[in-house]
Amino acid sequence: MNTSELQKVKQRYNIVGNCDGLNRAIDVALQVAPTDLSVLIVGESGVGKEIIPRIIHDNSPRRREKYFAINCGSIPEGTIDSELFGHEKGSFTGAIGESEGYFGVANKGTIFLDEVGELPLATQARLLRVLETGEYIRVGGQKIMKTDVRIVAATNVNMRKAISEGRFREDLYYRLNTIPIQIPPLRNRGEDIILLFRLFAMQMAEKYHLPKITLTDEARAIMLKYKWPGNVRQLKNITEQMSVLSENRVIDGEAIHKFIPEDAESTQLATLSTGGSHSFESEREILYKILYELRGNVNDLRREMNSLRKQIDATHSASVPSHDASLPSIISSGEDAGIEPSSRAATIVQDAVAEEISEPESLNLEDIGRQMVEKALERNGGNRKKAAKELGISDRTLYRRIKQYGLDK
User: Is residue 113 classed as helix, strand or coil in its secondary structure?
Assistant: First the structure.
């Protein structure tokens, strides 16, 4: 195919890039389009495999018939046979009517099976029969149905490995792989990376009325060296992030490292820094954090009681029971008793406080609490958030106490 014809196809399908591998894939797609041969498109996730079957269908004798793109990995195993081959009324719970399935509806047209490597083995056997004879049986049916469908499949898994592990039928692989088309990963497309970046940056600028972002030479070099494990999809996402979040519209080497890992050989997906927030890698870490915060709540409660006790001692030292000094050790013993630390501590503190004020001469605890809240609010100029922090309690607890003591009037 000459260059002008190739460029027309790229413009029609909004394909950006000039690398040899991409041009070869488009050329093979156009050559095989007039035939009914099965095609297997192989490439990593995010490289844009879905464009090739559309080119094949639109340039085939079936172009006026229906085209269906089906993601085999997104359909539950229990319903995929019904989705593809149809079912009879009453064949399973919920089958209130009969269904033709994709192979029935797409007769004379084209079906694109994306992620074909995710098909269950039983479904693979059905698909093999369709490829060999054009025949299939609906779920729950007995009548043999006929269909004339062109099948184009795509996968991002190592099919040879899947066959050796018994996850994919070898005979089906050879049926699908009549014409193989390999889509190159983005890291092997050279300057196409920069061309795609410019396209995505321009689209963002036009869509959201933003100044267009550009790259310095250093940033360009970093993008060309990065491995792009998410391929074109990842490049688009990162370009959109830069367009929205970058204050400086000229992206230099330092700025680009906020979106791309500094190690050029890294194959990790780029992540956006969230300003110090911690990303847990396991449930165990989350549990550790919860337990740590729970222990902190107990310590805060202990400090609050110590502060309260000191005020009681200063005001009415004669009325404080001598056993009160053991309160901190009693609070901490809740963990050894196999009781929830926070609830155990709260119960012990409540009992201890009740015991302290049970004497006739003891000061009313509500008066002390009101005084503490009043002083904290005065010291913080009425700022409730700061007052709650000083008292070691939550904003909600402080608000409740303010209402209780009538300090909101």
Answer: strand
